[in-house]
Amino acid sequence: MKKIISLFALALLVGAPVFSQAAYENQNNQSVGVNEVKSVSVNLAVMAGPTGFGSAALSKNDGKISDTLSINTKVYSAPTEVIAQLVKGTEDIAALPSNLAAVLYNKDVKIKLAAVIGNGMLSVVSSSIQNPMDLIGEQIYIPGGPASTPNQLAKLIISDNGLSEDDLTLEYGITSSAQLSQLLIAEKAKTALLPEPFVTMVLSKNSNLKKIYDAQDGYKVATGMDNYPMTVLVVQDEFAQNHPQALKEFLAAYNDSVAFVVANPKDAGKLIEDLGIMKAAMATPAIPNCNLTYVSAQDAKHEINEYYQMLFNFNPASVGGTLLPAEFYL
Hints:
By secondary structure, this protein is of the alpha+beta class. The chain folds into 2 domains: 2-26 and 37-119 and 228-328, Periplasmic binding protein-like II (D-Maltodextrin-Binding Protein, domain 2), CATH 3.40.190.10; 122-223, 3-Layer(aba) Sandwich (D-Maltodextrin-Binding Protein, domain 2), CATH 3.40.190. It has 12 helices and 13 strands. Strands 1, 2, 3, 4, 5, 6, 12 and 13 form an 8-stranded mixed β-sheet that branches. A 3-stranded antiparallel β-sheet has the order 10-7-11, with helices on both faces. A two-stranded parallel ribbon has the order 8-9. Helix 9 packs across helix 10 (265-275). The longest helix is centred in the last third of the chain and has 20 residues, at 244-263.
């Protein structure tokens, strides 16, 4: 119980702009013959919002991928809920913010990073200024709190534009991107760093709001890396060890799902709404801007390590206090 409480508290600090293993085999309560193949059902946890977009096509055919694999997708409203299920062992695979995956690993949750499924998608939007240099004297709202990815990117933006934190005010009082979006539309908040799909939504709702800075561009200038891995898939160690073939099939299916969502925003939007991830009216127009991808952990290792190093340099707690070992990657 102490461990669960500790991880809950940690998740609240980590935030997100934002799954000890419980895979089970479906058997018919009778012995399996030599030529029969066991069917594996994977419990997949995703969060409401763009973190879950790439999984949408997995829900087609009621989650049945093949005769030997089915996927049970469950949508959670907050990272704390996903953490609790990972600790209890009721979810096998989860989509998470990449820094939260690092924090959990460093807190001895037995997971491995399997793939990057979403790259950066943060932008500064404002109804009061026109370019980054106008940020001097401005109050910028940052969702997720001081240890969140948006805050680390905000610091990068400040540095990249030759500013210091004394030149402006970073406001952390509103942690929810959805709530912050409504304040921007009403112009009760003037400037904020927001993730997709909220950037697309607020720009469509208030013509006075403009995107004045793309955080991905700032990251590239500052680090030389084309992008940063914002969302990842993690898998429970036990599941990976016990079901290597099912995991391989699952990851291939997830890759196909991302490709489907990117190529078919309208159809994907309906699936996203049916899953309870987000309303199609908001998801569909945002999909092209959400930087969805699929890159295996081994192929993305260099980019992930560079991103973690950047986060660590700003605040070691944002990745759990230490950089990640090779064993972290599937």
